[in-house]
Amino acid sequence: MSISLSKPRSGLRFGGMVYFGITITLSAYFAFSAVQGDYGVLRQAQTAGELQSLTVERDALLAELAKLKTLTQRLSDAYLDIDLLDEQVRSVLGYIRADEIMIR
Q1: Which residues contact 90 (CB under 8 A, 6 or more apart)?
Q2: Which domain holds residue 42?
Q3: What is the pLDDT along the chain (104 residues), one digit of tens a residue?
Q4: Looking at the 3D structure of the chain, how many domains does it have?
Q5: How far is 67 from 77, CA to CA, in rounded Å?
Q6: Residue 43: inside a domain, yes or no?
């Protein structure tokens, strides 16, 4: 009759459970980071939307800049547009000609 004095191997089961728990925890963390993190899928979609709206805003500002450059060039000494000058004097300074009647 042989009696075994060694302990049962329950430590292996506990170590396996710890290993499995750590693996699941790390997998869940990386999956969450891939979706919700700073460089995740949702952040990339948000960045793409911001890029599109900022591109539209940039194009509108470039068009306004081109318009202002044209107006500035038309008021310069080298190229003087009399009609534009007359319009600016009337709107900014409130001038009218002697033969005009002002209605408020």
Answers
A1: 96
A2: 11-93
A3: 556 566 655 556 888 889 999 999 999 999 999 988 888 888 999 999 999 999 999 999 999 999 999 988 887 777 777 888 888 888 888 788 778 777 77
A4: 1
A5: 18
A6: yes
